[in-house]
Amino acid sequence: QVQLVESGGGLVQPGGSLRLSCSGFGSLFGIEAMAWYRQAPGKQREFVAQINSDDSTDYLASVKGRFTISRDSAKNTVYLQMSSLRPEDTAVYSCTAHRGPFEPYWGQGTQVTVSS
User: Fold this and answer.
1) Within a 10 A sphere around the Cβ of 36, how many other Cβ atoms?
2) Residue 18 and residue 112 in contact, taking contact as beta carbons nearer than 8 Å
3) Residue 8: helix, strand or coil by DSSP?
4) Residue-wise pLDDT tens for the chain (116 aa)?
5) Which of 35, 36, 55, 100 could form a disulfide with 50 if both were Cys (CB 3.0 to 4.6 A apart)?
């Protein structure tokens, strides 16, 4: 079993920055990729960023150049550094852990609100 715990969300003004963290606990062997998703009120959940076991990354087009996903394997933690935040980035951000063809594990989510 894998447990994911996110932190770092909050209220920030447009143009500001936040860093989200996702710490993994439990049986993490074989986890091949970690990703961030977000869901804004009234909208479908969308993919934000992913980091693979070879450290390759992928991003949603609208966050490319503003968000950076990284990881600290020693701490079993993945980060999402968010800069130049916009009101449309407001959402609940959740991290996922992917192991082979199985359903991913999900964290509980952390709220990010971008507002003046």
Assistant:
1) 26
2) yes
3) coil
4) 899 999 999 999 999 999 999 999 988 888 899 999 999 999 999 999 999 999 999 999 999 999 999 999 889 999 999 999 999 999 999 999 999 888 999 999 999 999 99
5) 35
